[in-house]
Please model this.
Amino acid sequence: MPKAYRSGFVAIVGRPNVGKSTFLNKVLGQKVAIVSSKAQTTRHRIKGIHSEDDAQVVFVDTPGIHKPLHLLGEQLVKTAVDSLSEVDLILFLLDGRTSAGRGDKYVADLLSKVNKPVVFVLNKVDSLKVDPEVLQSYEALGEHVSVHVISALYGKGVQPLLKEIVERMPEGPPFYSEDEVTDQSERDLAGELVREAVLRQTSEEVPHAVAVRVDEFKERDGGKTFIQATIFVERDSQKGILIGEKGSKLKEIGAAARQSIEKALDRSVYLELWVKVLPNWRKQAKSLKQLGYVVD
Model:
């Protein structure tokens, strides 16, 4: 290990749907966090580990910070906020295409209460050119050590940002071995990829009411992994949408999810999906715990 080896933790925070998971996947060069156009896609705190010859950065991808409307929302925001006290640097991701709004101010006010350096990252700017008024609106949000303009989707501006992140890490040994990329298990990733398939193939009525639980995950003869998962929704009407006429929609979801899981695990998968109704699960602590969410 080089004498000047640097290592530390970096929280990725921001409003829902500003590209936090897209950024993490781009930095790591592989998919560890699901992505969709729906808000609040990320529900768990996911660690992504970026290792270089003389540095290791552990990124903590957090749920989007928003004003919660139910118990699940409260837990998501708490998960994000709790992450801030445990890191060396905070990346505040913002949508650089439009001026700062009330949601950005809400997040900035939370960050002002945490004694950590903050880097403003204006994402979704494919040209890397930001309107001066837009830039000024973000710079006025609060204290920050620097501003970067990036396009996480295309990887533009990511390397200069990564260089500064490494430079701001304290000296110290690595926390993980160099071949580790995430703390997420294959079982958990499979469940998230099923939920991603649901998010991408259903209407606005369904996505936020969906949770996925992997009930079985085991290797079978021939090297194929057998996965059985249950998709939970809150109403019978949502169950009908997910299943579709003669099971057509569920087959589409299953096919898309299986393809993503096989790519992520690099092996053949047999995926079996079920759909069940769990009324108002987002509002009930017992149901949240049943579905694997930590409830304080």
User: Anything to note?
Assistant: Residues 248-265 form the longest helix (18 residues). The first strand starts at residue 6 and ends at 13.
